[in-house]
C-alpha cells in the first residue's frame, strides 16, 4: 500500500505537504503512511483514494491485507484462521446481499432496453430538450416540497428573470437555486463516479443559499422530526458518523449495483439520515439524479401532484420504518422508465 500511495502522489505532482493540506491529515502522518510505519484509518483511506484518484477497492484491499498480516503474522494457525474467516465472510455476504424481486428485475431489464434505444437516438438530442426537461424537474421537485409556482411561472423566474406577483421570495429562490444545483451536478458528471462529502455539501449550499444561509451546506446541530412520518432521524451528534458510513457504503457498492438501484439507495439512505435542517428531499433527489446522469440515464423526475407525492412518501416510510425498500426501488424504477419513454418519444417525433 505504501508504494501505491507514494506513486499516486508523485503522478499527481503533489508534495507530501500539499497532499496533507488537501486531505486535512498531518504531513508527518502522510510520510509515515508512505514509509509503512503507520497505517491510515478507513476514513483516511477514503480521502486519499479520492484525492489521489486511486481505485477505492484496490487501496482498501491493500490496506486490509497489511492489517491482517500485522495482526496474525506467521502464526502456525494463521492460514486455518483465515480459512474460517473466509467462510464466515462468504456466509455473511450471502445473507446481506440485496435480493431483487421478479418485479424489480423485470422493470430493470425494461429500463436497460429503453436506455439502449435512447443511446441510439442521441444524435437527435439538443440543448433545448435538456433545458425543458431540467425546468420540469426543478418545478416538480420544488412542488413536492410545497412550492406553489406553476411550470410557466418557474420558467419566467429562471429564464426571464421575472418576479411573480403573490409568490414569496423563498419560492423565487427555490426555483433559481434548484436550477443552479442542476448546473452544478452536470459539472460533476465529468468526474467519473464522483460523489464525496464536499460535493454533497456544495449541492445543499446551493439549495438553501439565500433562504437559510446559516444552515446552507452544514449538517444539522439539533434533533429533527419529519412531518407526517413516524421515522425518527438519528441524533445530531450521530450525523457526521452516519454520513461517513454513507460515503463508505457508496465507495464499496458504486460499481456493484444496477445504476437505478444504486441511485435509489443513495436517495433513501440520505433522506433517512436527514442530515440537514431543511432541503433534505431536494438534495437527496439531486444526488440520485447525479448518479443516474453519470451512468448515462436521464433524470428520474418524481411528480409533485398529490397522488405521486403520497406514493413517494409512503414508499419512503415503509423503507424507513419496516426496513423494506422494495416499494421504494419499484417507485424510482418506474419513474426512470417513464423518463426514458418520454425522452425517446420526444427525440423520435
TrEMBL record:
Q: Which residues form the HTH cro/C1-type domain?
A: 5-59
- Source domain of life is Bacteria
Signal sequence, start to end: none
Classification via SUPFAM superfamilies = Fic-like, lambda repressor-like DNA-binding domains
UniProt xrefs under PROSITE patterns = FIDO (PS51459), HTH_CROC1 (PS50943)
Gene3D superfamilies registered for this protein in UniProt: Fido-like domain (1.10.3290.10), lambda repressor-like DNA-binding domains (1.10.260.40)
Question: What residues does the Fido domain cover?
Answer: 195-334
- PANTHER family documented for this protein: FIDO DOMAIN-CONTAINING PROTEIN, FIDO DOMAIN-CONTAINING PROTEIN DDB_G0283145
Q: What is this protein called?
A: DNA-binding protein
Query: Whose protein is this, by species?
Result: Flavobacterium ginsengisoli
Amino acid at each position: 500500500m505504501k508504494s501505491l500511495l507514494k506513486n499516486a502522489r508523485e503522478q499527481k505532482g503533489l508534495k507530501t505537504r500539499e497532499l496533507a493540506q488537501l486531505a486535512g491529515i498531518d504531513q508527518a502522518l502522510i510520510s509515515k503512511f508512505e514509509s509503512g510505519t503507520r497505517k491510515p484509518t478507513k476514513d483516511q483511506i477514503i480521502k486519499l483514494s479520492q484525492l489521489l484518484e486511486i481505485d477505492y477497492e484496490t487501496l482498501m484491499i491493500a490496506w486490509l491485507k497489511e492489517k491482517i498480516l500485522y495482526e496474525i503474522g506467521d502464526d502456525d494457525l494463521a492460514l486455518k484462521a483465515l480459512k474460517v474467516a473466509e467462510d464466515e465472510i462468504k456466509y455473511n455476504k450471502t445473507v446481506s446481499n440485496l435480493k431483487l424481486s421478479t418485479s424489480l428485475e423485470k422493470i430493470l431489464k425494461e429500463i436497460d432496453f429503453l436506455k439502449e434505444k435512447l443511446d441510439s437516438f442521441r444524435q437527435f438530442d439538443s440543448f433545448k430538450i435538456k433545458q425543458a426537461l431540467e425546468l420540469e424537474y426543478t418545478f416538480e421537485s420544488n412542488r413536492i416540497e410545497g412550492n406553489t409556482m406553476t411550470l410557466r411561472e418557474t420558467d419566467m423566474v429562471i429564464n426571464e428573470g421575472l418576479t411573480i406577483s403573490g409568490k414569496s421570495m423563498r419560492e423565487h429562490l427555490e426555483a433559481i437555486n434548484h436550477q443552479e444545483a442542476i448546473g452544478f451536478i452536470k459539472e460533476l458528471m465529468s468526474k467519473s463516479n464522483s460523489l464525496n462529502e464536499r460535493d454533497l455539501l456544495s449541492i445543499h449550499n446551493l439549495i438553501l443559499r439565500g433562504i437559510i444561509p446559516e444552515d446552507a451546506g452544514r449538517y444539522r446541530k439539533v434533533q429533527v422530526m419529519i412531518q407526517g412520518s413516524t421515522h425518527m432521524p438519528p441524533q445530531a451528534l450521530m450525523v457526521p458518523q452516519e454520513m461517513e458510513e454513507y460515503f463508505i457504503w457508496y465507495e464499496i457498492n458504486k460499481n456493484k449495483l444496477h445504476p437505478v438501484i444504486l441511485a435509489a439507495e443513495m436517495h433513501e439512505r440520505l433522506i433517512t439520515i436527514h442530515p440537514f435542517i431543511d432541503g433534505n428531499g431536494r438534495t437527496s433527489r439531486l444526488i440520485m439524479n447525479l448518479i443516474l446522469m453519470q451512468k448515462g440515464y436521464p433524470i428520474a423526475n418524481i411528480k409533485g401532484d398529490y397522488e405521486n407525492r403520497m406514493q413517494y412518501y409512503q414508499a419512503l416510510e415503509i423503507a424507513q420504518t419496516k426496513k423494506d425498500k422494495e416499494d421504494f426501488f419499484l417507485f424510482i424504477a418506474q419513474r426512470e422508465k417513464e423518463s426514458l419513454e418520454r425522452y425517446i418519444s420526444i427525440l423520435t417525433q
